[in-house]
Amino acid sequence: MDLQDQRIAVTGGSGFLGSHVAAALAGAGADVRALGSADFDLRQRGEVDRMLDQTSPDVVVHLAAVVGGIGANRAEPGRFLYENAVMGLELIEACRVRGISKVCVAGTVCEYPKFTPVPFREDELWSGYPEETNAPYGIAKKMLLAQGQAYRDQYQMNVIHVLPVNLYGPGDSFDLETGHVIPAIIRKCITARDAHEDHIVLWGDGSATREFLYVDDAARGFRMALEGYDDADPVNLGTGTEISIRDLAEMIAEITGYQGRIVWDDQQPNGQPRRGLDTTRARERFGFQAEMSLRDGLAETVDWYEKSRANLA
Known about the structure:
Oligomer: single chain
Shape: globular
Mean pLDDT: 95
Radius of gyration: 19 Å
Number of strands: 12
CATH topology of the domain at 7-167 and 213-240 and 273-291: Rossmann fold
CATH architecture of the domain at 7-167 and 213-240 and 273-291: 3-Layer(aba) Sandwich
Low-confidence stretches: none
């Protein structure tokens, strides 16, 4: 697909990933409509129809989601399941009715079973139950994968499902209640550094591993998938490199200049034991490879937060 002059509606387009994806698509010549929750309530079918009527898109990229870290997922599992499922189900059906030429759905690494062998290969998605703390969210997103494949089979609808690994970068949410692990650790380190505190407390024991993808790399991956991928198979977006949360915290402490102790609260959950993706499919089918190293990406994120935190309070 040549994106030049294509009218593309990006749900969640005012959010962290969405704003970067919208910019990447606009850079490829698309006419982008970046939509936020203040514009349309996608939990309501009437609002979905109104959005499509007003934007008249050729292509839809569905990034809108209710997201958060382990704490947020444990606090509101019902909301995370229902709202993520209903937004996607109604949107994909509405796009089918209107004959939208292509729909790209953002999945999540949380769709994978808890004990998926590392590296996670897309063929393992249905081999077990997701990790308990974020299973409702992961199942909701996996439902959209099944819907897209069913609609492709029955209606020949072009729906693709992209699975980005944990994202980070400038513009992320640094809210300690709802944010993800990297912004949470950055904020805790900088706050403790500035207050001359001798320790910070992090959840778990630090042994769990994660893989992190810089948001600009992710946005480029979505653009490349729209341009060059048209298959039913889900496809991972990541770096192919995992790091323990303990090593991640030490790297962030070094970058932020925090010199106190890191105390691990092992009464709190680690989440999934390991996460690391096989990125072969994205590389082979549409040429995507991550470019930003984790250390450089963390430095960019820390620098953005230091400059922006007065406005985030």
